[in-house]
Amino acid sequence: MDEIVNNSEALCEFLKKMIIDTLKLEGVAVQGIDTSAPLFRKGLGLDSIDALELVVAIEKIFNVIIEDEEVGKRAFTSINALAKFIQEKYKQGK
Amino acid sequence: MQWIETEEMVRFNEVDEWGMAWHGHYMAWFEVGRISLLRQFDLLPRQIVDLGYVAPVISLKCDFKNPAASGDRIIIRTTAVKPEIAALIFKFDILLKENRTLLARGETTQVLLTTNRKMIYRLSGELEKRIRNLVDYCLQDVTVQVATKAQTIEN
């Protein structure tokens, strides 16, 4: 996992796949997700329940905790923002 | 799985023009079952507020299997499910008391917000403890519990 987390591009791709798999998004491909577009509402169109599921997946995979909506707002801004957030917290956890 | 049972009666004002319990009332009966269960674990709405949270329902499902009529005694069976996410999930069966015919089967999901309306993604502290107690109780194997009870009587 260290290898993926340390490589921003690989991490972004991993996160896109994780989102598609976790939320069972139909008709959405990895290449169809814009790395800098918002994940919620106007962007990928995710909602707050999706956030709850993603939080569980992120904790299981990266051992990174997103406590609440306040922190989630920052983490879930975009794929890029989520990757940065995970890189930051993952290092802190090491 | 452990279910708690609450009894209600279908009132005259709860049936529609066709003499069947109106579908919307089942939601209120789910609430009766949910409150009966939550009361045992200090998780009544007021007590959740005292801990600094609110728990709005964000999903509600109900399948209607058989109609109930005015004056029918019904049993509301309620249990809680262990959630993968930070949420409260309940399952309900509504039965006709007389012969335990299944009338309706439903499920509700509630998320947890702080009292200033921020959703929490992880349970913690006293709220987590009470929800864990509730879920552990509902996950109990009923056959084991009955056996234990019989053993207690023997002893």
Radius of gyration of chain A: 12 Å
What is the beta-strand fraction of chain B?
A: 25-35%
Mean pLDDT of chain A: 92
Strand order of the largest sheet of chain B: 1-4-5-6-3
Give the CA-based shape of chain A. globular
Helix content of chain B: 25-40%
Give the low-confidence spans of chain B: 145-155
Question: How many angstroms does the end-to-end distance of chain B come to?
Answer: 25 Å
- Please trace the helix and strand order of chain B, writing H or E for each element: EHHEEEEEEHH
Number of domains of chain B: 1
Count of alpha/pi helices of chain B: 4
Q: Please identify the structural class of chain B as seen in this structure.
A: alpha+beta
Rg of chain B (CA only): 17 Å
Helices of chain A, by number, come to: 5
**Integer count of domains of chain A:** 1
CATH architecture level-2 label of chain B: Roll
Number of E strands of chain A: 0
What does this structure look like?
The complex is a heterodimer of chains A (94) and B (155). Chain A is mainly alpha-helical and 94 residues long. Chain A has helices spanning 2-6, 8-22, 48-62, 69-75, 79-93. Chain A is 61% helix and 0% strand. Chain A starts with a helix and ends with a helix. Chain A has a single domain, classed as Orthogonal Bundle (Non-ribosomal Peptide Synthetase Peptidyl Carrier Protein, Chain A). The mean pLDDT of chain A is 92. The longest helix of chain A is centred in the N-terminal third of the chain and has 15 residues, at 8-22. Chain A contains five helices and no strands. Chain B has a single domain, classed as Hotdog Thioesterase (Thiol Ester Dehydrase, Chain A). Chain B contains four helices and seven strands; from the N terminus they run βααββββββαα. Chain B has helices at residues 25-39, 45-50, 125-139, 142-154, and strands at residues 4-9, 53-54, 57-64, 73-81, 87-96, 102-111, 113-114. In chain B, strands 1-4-5-6-3 form a five-stranded antiparallel sheet. Chain B has a two-stranded antiparallel ribbon with strand order 2-7. Chain B is globular and about 45 Å long. The two termini of chain B are 25 Å apart. Chain A binds chain B through residues 48-49, 51-53, 55-56, 65-72, and chain B through 58-59, 84-87, 111, 114, 118-122, 124.
